[in-house]
Structures are given as C-alpha cells and as structure tokens.
Amino acid sequence: MTVSCKYCNKVAEHFVPNLGAALCGEHFLAYFYKRVKRVLERAGRGRRILVGVSGGKDSISALYALSALREEFNLEIGAVHIDLGFPGVEDCYEIFERACIRTEVKQHVISLKEEYGFTIPDLAEKVRTLCQACGIVRRYLLNKLAWEEKYDFVATGHNLDDMVYFAFNNLITHNISFLNTLDSVLPPIPRLKLVGRIRPLFWLNDVDSLTYLKVIGAEYCPKKCPYHKETKQIFLKPLFDDVQKKWPQSKVNLITSLRKLVRLSSIMDRREENMRLCSRCGYPTRLEVCSFCRLREMAEK
Fold first, then answer.
1. What pLDDT was estimated at residue 262?
2. Which of 205, 208, 237, 268 lies 20 to 30 Å from 58, alpha-carbon distance?
3. Which residues contact 1 (CB under 8 A, 6 or more apart)?
4. Residue range 190-202, pLDDT digits in tens
5. How is domain 37-224+232-300 classified at the CATH fold level?
6. What does the alpha-carbon distance between residue 133 and residue 119 come to, in Å, rounded to a whole number?
7. Alpha carbons 21 and 11: distance in angstroms, whole number
8. Distance CA 55, CA 58 (A)
9. 205: alpha, beta or left, given left = phi > 0 and alpha = psi -120 to 50?
10. What is the 3-state secondary structure (H, E, C) of the chain?
11. What distance in Å separates the CA atoms of residue 140 and residue 130, rounded to the nearest whole number?
C-alpha cells in the first residue's frame, strides 16, 4: 500500500523516527534543514566553521548541510580529514576529497604520523582502550587546527542518537559533570585557546543522515574502524530505538529535559573549572600536562 507524505499528497519514501511518520523527498529536506538551522541560529551568523570529516555518513552529512546553508547564514567553511594511521581507510579520504570539491570548501589534511611521529595503532599495547585515545587525539587536533586557522567553531557529526547514548552512559557511570557539554553549541573560550563546538545534527537521528545523503545523491564511506570492539553502544542504542518506535518524541524529550536540568544546576558553571594551558604544548587541559602530550610521550617510549 502506498503511503502519503505527512505534509502533502506525494508518495512518502523516507521514514523519520522523530516524527513517527514518512515524508516525501522535498519535505524531508525541509525537515532536515530546519533542525540544522535550529543549531546555526544559536551559533550566530557570519561564523567560520571547521568541519571534522572522517568520510562516514554523519560527518559527510554535516559538511553538505552546512554548505547548503552557507549563504543563508553567511558561513565560511573548511573541512579537515585526520589520518590516524588506521589501515584500509584510503577510500574514506577519497570520499572526503570529492565532497570538498563538490561543496567548494577549503581542505585541510592532518597526518598524525607525519606531524607527531605516531599512529593510533601504535598505542594498542600501551593504553586501556584505543577508542579513548582516538577521541583524545581527534579533539586535540581539531581544536589546534581550528585555533591556528582562526575558525570560530569546530563542527562534528554527532547526532541525537549519540547524545542520548552519551547522556545515559554518563548517568550510569556517575560522570555527571560531563553533562555540561550536552548541547548543540558550546561557545569558544579564547583565554584557553579553545574554539567553540557545534553539532549540526544534534536534533537528527542516525538514519536521517543516510536518508539525507540518498536524497541529495552524495556518497559516504561505510567502513568501520578496524579496531572497533563491542561497546555499551551496541547494547544500549537498540534499546533506545525500541522506545522511540513506541514514543517518537522520546529521544528529543530526554535530551531537552536533561539540558534543562543541567541549566538549573551548578554543572553549567564548571566547564572552565580547573582548566589551564598545558605546560608542554600550550593548549587546554585540567592537568599540568594534557592528555595528548602524555599519549605522545607514551608512543615515543
């Protein structure tokens, strides 16, 4: 049986979990961009944004969406691909390169091996989890490049499903202070050489990125990290999906409620608490030596 779009009589081809309904291509794009605009309105117009692009569906979607809204928000956009030394991901770089050409944005490429002398796989026997080390390195390199190139914000492909998992995981592990970053936009802190953070896909589901790329006819790299192991995400995300199938607004309502609770608490005031500049590299840290410099020293040993 043919299903009609929620907003018109056209054939509905794209199911939207947040709505619990299907949309035609035209109304899906309107839905997608409306939620990205909601984030951009908070960041402000006339901003310089550096998009971290791995080549995966979410980061590629963020790049295309920001590029589509570039004139409306008077944005200057750059994109960076970080080569962390994982084998077999050359296709992802090629997709990043083609996406930059199509969107006409400035390209940046960082090679961890060439610039710092080590790769993430080099740390395999030296750290508890490679995922944590990878996150530290990515955040450091994105912020450092953005600061040096005078970007206002770093944009990442984190979406609503990521935020729900992030929030729940921090609650069950009692890391409540981390909830102060549960937001679509985090302002810059210039005194700490910390650029702002923006998550254009904050109010969009995982599947929305796939639908968006299909509608605009764009490619992405489907390859997973070769060192990926089972994490709590594999068990928790399907549970959240089951809840959303019954109550479509559940994920949006959960994040909205938690953000309101954070703002009513003292957690919001702790983002800069105990932060300083690393004694070695001069970038933000809560310790004398930042996590990136300690990983680098570990790799050298």
1. 87
2. 268
3. none
4. 999 999 999 999 9
5. Rossmann fold (3.40.50)
6. 10
7. 12
8. 8
9. beta
10. CCCECCCCCCECCEEECCCCEEECHHHHHHHHHHHHHHHHHHHCCCCEEEEECCCCHHHHHHHHHHHHCHHHHCCEEEEEEEECCCCCCHHHHHHHHHHHHHHCCEEEEEEHHHHHCCCCHHHCCCCCCHHHHHHHHHHHHHHHHHHHCCCCEEECCCCHHHHHHHHHHHHHCCCHHHHHHCCCEECCEHHHCECEEECCCCCCCHHHHHHHHHHHCCCCCCCCCCCCCCCHHHHHHHHHHHHHHHCCCHHHHHHHHHHHHHHHCCHHHHCCCCCEECCCCCCEECCCCCHHHHHHHHHHC
11. 15
Give the whole-angstrom CA distance, residue 30 versus residue 24: 10
Task: Look up residue 243 and give its two tokens.
Answer: 């809840």
- Token pair of 7 as six digits: 């907003």
0.85 exceeded by pTM: yes
Q: Which amino acid is at 73?
A: F
Tokens of 9: 């009589």
Helix axis angle for 250-264 and 160-172, nearest 10°, is 50
Residue with tokens 């030394």: 85
**Chain CA centroid to CA 177, Å:** 20
Q: Characterize the bridge pairing of strands 48-52 and 76-83.
A: parallel
Residues 6 or more apart in contact with residue 25 via CB below 8 angstroms:
13, 14, 215
Domain boundaries, the chain: 37-224+232-300
Q: Is the pLDDT of residue 230 over 60?
A: no
| Structure tokens given for 81 | 């691909």
